[in-house]
Amino acid sequence: MYKFQDRATDSIILFWLLLVYSLLPGLAKFLDFRFIFILNIPIILIVFFKTFKLNGLRYTDIPFLIFIGFVIGYIPLSFFFPLNSGEAIFYGIYTFLMPTLGYFIGSAFSVSSILKIYIKICLIHGVIGWILYPYFFFDGYLNHVIDPVLSGSAYLRMTSVSGSLGFSPLMLIGFNIILSSFFISNSKEFKFPVLLLLFFCCCIILSLQRSAWLGGVVSLLLVVFRNLFILKINLIKLFKLMSLFAFSSIFIFFLIKYDLFDLEKLNFFLDRKDSFTSAANERNQMWVNGLSNFYKFPTGVGLGQVGLVPTFIDSKNYYSGVTDGDFIKTLSETGFIGLIFYSFIVLIILIMFFNIHILSIQLFTLFLIIIAFSIQMIGTNISELYFVNYSYWLFVGLFFRSVNFSNGPK
After folding, report:
1. How far apart are CA 197 and CA 199, in angstroms?
2. Fewer CB in a 10 Å sphere around the end CB: N or C, the chain?
C-alpha cells in the first residue's frame, strides 16, 4: 500500500484533506444537510492508513497507546451500564475516539511540514472569520448565504464555520506558530510575521473566548521569558512585539467604538474582558459534579455520557453533566486512566518548562500549542469539537515524538 511520506506532493494532499475536514461544519450548515459531518470519517481513515507505520511507533507512544487501549476496551463494558445511553456512546466514539487517530500523522510527516500545513488552514479560517464578521451588524446582499453559516454562533463572537469555540483554538495555533519563531533573526519560514501576528491576535480578541485570550497571553509571556531572560535577545524585537499587541488592542477598540458597535455592544465586549472570575464561578459547581462522577465511578462512566453529547442528541442524562471543562469531562468518562494520562502530559509540560532554554524552535512551538490547548480545556470541551479535537491529538502525537526522555528535550 502506498504510504504518505514527508515530501511536497503528499503534503499538498494532506493539506487539502485536512482543510476539507475543517470546513465540513460550514458545508453542513450551508447545504442544511447534517450528515455531511460523517465525511470526516473517510478523511480520518485515509490519513491514518496512509501515515501509520507499525515499525514507526516509539516508546514515547506507550502512554498514549495504553490510554487509548483502555478506552477502547472499556467501550463494550459501558454498554452494560444501566444508566448509559447507547446512542451517546456511539457519538462519543465519533467525537472523541475517532479523532485520536490524528496522533499518528507524525510517523510520516515532520513537525515543520505539519506547521506549514496548519498555518495555511488557520489563515483560511481567519479570512473566513473576517468576511463573516460584519454580517453580525448589518444586512447585505449575501445574508441568505451567510446566515446559515452563522447559525449557532454566539452573538458578536468571530467565527469561521463552527462557532467561536472551534474558531479560537485554530487562531491560537496560527498565533503560536508565528510567535515562536518571531525572535529568530535568520528565520525565513514565514513572510510578514508582524502582519500575521496582528491578524491572528485580532481574531483571538474578537472571538471573545476568554480561555483563548488567556492562552494567547500565556504564550506571549513564555516567548518573552525564553527569548529575553534566557536567550538574551535584544530589546528591539521585544519592543516591536509589544507595539504590535498595543496596536492590535487600539485597533480593536476603535473598530468597536466607531465602526461596528453601538454602546450596548461595546459594553458586551468589555463585560467579557472583565468576567474571568465569573467564568470560573459559573463552572465551579459543574466541575464539582464532574469530580463526583469520578468518585462514584473511578473507572469512568463511558464515552459520550457527561459532555455536550447528551444535550445534542436530547438524551436523558443520569450523570452530572460537564459541558464546560474538558479535563473534568474526560476524567468523568475515562476515569483513573484519563487522570493518569493527562497528568503525564502536564508532567511533560513542566519538564519542558524547566528545560525551556534548550528546546529547539519546533519543540518550543509544540510546547506553546499544547499549553494553549490545555488552558482552553480547563473551561471548554474541545474533545467534542470535531476538527479541533483531531488537531489536538495530532499535536500531542508530534509533541510526544519530539521528546527524548532518556536524553532530554531535542
Report:
1. 5
2. N
How many angstroms separate the CA atoms of 266 and 286, rounded?
29
On the 0-12 / 13-18 / 19+ scale of CB atoms within 10 A, 228 is: middle
φ, ψ of residue 235 in degrees (nearest 5)? -80, -10
In a domain, 170, yes or no: yes
Compute the distance between CA of residue 322 and CA of residue 284 in angstroms, rounded to an integer: 10
- The residue whose grid cell reads 514515547 is 60
CA nearest to 2, candidates 37, 35, 49, 38: 49
Number of domains present in the structure of the chain: 1
Q: 314: pLDDT confidence band, cut at 50, 70 and 90?
A: low
For residue 17, name the pLDDT band (cuts at 50, 70, 90). very high
CA dihedral 275, 277, 278, 283 (to 10 degrees): 130
Cβ distance 82 to 323 under 8 Å? no
Does 246 fall in a domain? yes
Backbone φ, ψ for residue 275 (5° rounding): -115, 30
Q: Minimal CA–CA distance to 168: which of 160, 180, 156?
A: 160
Q: What is the pTM of this model?
A: 0.85
pLDDT for residue 239 is more than 90: no
- Residues near 11 by beta carbon (within 8 Å), at least 6 away in sequence: 109, 113, 116, 117
Amino acid code (one letter) for 168: S
Cell readout for 17 is 484533506
Residue 263 lies in a domain: yes
Which residues form the domain of 246?
8-409
The DSSP annotation for 311-373 comes to HHTT----S----S-HHHHHHHHHTHHHHHHHHHHHHHHHHHHHTGGG--HHHHHHHHHHHHH
